[in-house]
């Protein structure tokens, strides 16, 4: 079965597999959205079903909620859980300070609320997500549908005044219609190229009327687990200042991958 996976999927899988080591019995766990997070949800489900791990999962999207239930994880709302031990999620980009762009899957609002309500946020990513400066990936901004074209013009004017390289905002589509988030909002993708001051950009965007949230996650992520297509895994902890490397090996078995340890 491992032969069917592309190197990028293998990289996502090993990062996800390593991340569930952070989850202990009794924890309340934020469950991210996207293809990497989906691997993590499947790995957690396996631990729940086969090893009796007891956790409560708070999903960041309806998609993740469906998958979590399907694999046997008890799903609760954030209001029921109130505060979480850990959130594990993917990212579209991360930099050397573990600041992120998220929202490629359109779930940035719930993802940011859930991550911020967690003792620890762990990002799982394939090696292609690492950048020197954020901004090559279009920055998702969730806006309310009312007056979205005015909001778009205001954002573009703001980008000109901030002297940002790219200034185009495009409405995310789902076929012929605007993409609608779980909260009933639209997404504007900002094609910036490079975000010099991500903190300032995040604050300015969130002050604009009509903007609900932006996809910049500044000082939220604690750990990035980076997967490679050959099974290597690198764990970077920004608080501890540590980098650990190890390896998961691919085997043709039910479990797909075996932990070889150090
Ligand atoms: O932010 C997200 C969803 O809103 C995802 O975490 C991000 O888009 C990464 O997705 P993938 O793991 O599929 O590459």
User: What is the terminal separation in angstroms?
Assistant: 24 Å
CATH topology of the largest domain: Rossmann fold
Helical fraction equals 25-40%
**Gross CATH architecture of the largest domain:** 3-Layer(aba) Sandwich
Name the poorly predicted regions.
258-262
State the domain count: 2
Provide structural commentary:
By secondary structure, the chain is an alpha/beta fold. It has 2 domains: 7-130 and 219-247, Rossmann fold (3-Layer(aba) Sandwich); 139-214, ACT domain (Alpha-Beta Plaits). Helices cover 29% and strands 29% of the residues. It contains 7 helices and 18 strands. The strands form 4 sheets. It has a 9-stranded mixed sheet with strand order 3-2-1-4-7-15-16-17-18. A 4-stranded antiparallel sheet has the order 9-12-8-13. Strands 5-6-14 form a 3-stranded antiparallel sheet, with helices on one face. Strand 15 and strand 16 (232-237) form a beta hairpin. Helix 1 crosses helix 2 (35-51). The protein is globular and about 55 Å long. The chain starts with 6 loop residues before the first helix and ends with a strand. 45% of the residues are buried. Mean pLDDT is 93; it is low at 258-262. Bound molecules: ribulose-5-phosphate (5RP).
Write the layout of secondary structure elements.
Blueprint: H1 7-19, E1 28-31, H2 35-51, E2 56-59, H3 62-70, E3 74-75, H4 78-81, E4 84-89, E5 93-94, E6 100-101, H5 108-116, E7 118-126, E8 139-143, H6 148-161, E9 168-171, E10 173-174, E11 177-178, E12 186-191, H7 198-206, E13 211-214, E14 216-217, E15 223-227, E16 232-237, E17 242-250, E18 257-259
Helix pairs in contact: 1-2
Bound molecules: ribulose-5-phosphate.
Ribulose-5-phosphate binds next to helix 2 and helix 5.
